[in-house]
Amino acid sequence: MPRFQVAFRAAPYNSVVVQFYGDSLPADHINIGSFYHEHENDEIDNQSGPENHVIYHHVRELLYKRKPDGTAGGMFPNNITDMAAMVITVDTTFVAVASISSAPATANLANAATQQITNTILPANATNPAVTYSTSNAAVATVSSTGLITAGATDGTATITVTTVDGGFTDTVVVTVA
């Protein structure tokens, strides 16, 4: 599920840009918040449509918490209420993850040794290349949020699973500790 950030520029422009979370903000805009949009493959563009209606409501909710100068604390009656004066632009350059490959495929480690997992996400310009890690046996091997495997005190085999946040693609690293 992609995350979007909303950038705002106050009067006289009253412009709002909705873009993928982590993208560089447009000049003279401030980040006023973010939201998750449930359907990553929806046709979201600057035309009318049901998904644009959802985007509009996310933007409106964030703007209601802002004062007309863009600063925080704009709850009623000092918030932005004139949505007709806003120019909302949606950046639609989402690139979906197509696959993941993790290396090494296998690792033989002594107790307390470490091994870094290296992931290749395709396409290389995927909008959200984030991954999560899990282990099948934490007594044998653990894995950090950055993909560093640490062999445990128990000999045996553990499978480390790497999963892409976008698309849920997986690959595994089989770790043997002896």
How many helix segments? Answer: 1
Based on the structure, what is the oligomeric state of the protein chains? single chain
Record field, number of beta strands: 13
Summed over residues and divided by their number, the pLDDT gives a mean of 84
* N-to-C span: 40 Å
Question: Which segments are poorly predicted (pLDDT under 50) over 5 or more consecutive residues?
Answer: 41-48
How many structurally independent domains?
Answer: 2
Report on the architecture of this protein.
By secondary structure, the chain is mainly β. The chain has two domains: 3-90, no CATH class; 99-177, Immunoglobulin-like, CATH 2.60.40.1080. It has one helix at 50-63; strands at 3-9, 15-20, 30-36, 87-90, 99-103, 106-109, 114-116, 118-122, 131-135, 141-143, 148-151, 156-164, 170-177. It has a four-stranded mixed β-sheet, covered by helices on one side. A four-stranded mixed β-sheet has the order 6-13-12-9, with no helix packed on it. Strand 10 (141-143) and strand 11 form a beta hairpin. It is elongated. The two termini are 40 Å apart.
Give the topology, please:
Layout: E1 3-9, E2 15-20, E3 30-36, H1 50-63, E4 87-90, E5 99-103, E6 106-109, E7 114-116, E8 118-122, E9 131-135, E10 141-143, E11 148-151, E12 156-164, E13 170-177
Features:
4-stranded mixed β-sheet, 178 residues, mainly beta, 2 domains, 39% strand, Immunoglobulin-like
Condensed summary:
With 178 residues, the protein is mainly β. The protein has 2 domains: 3-90, no CATH class; 99-177, Immunoglobulin-like (Sandwich), CATH 2.60.40.1080.
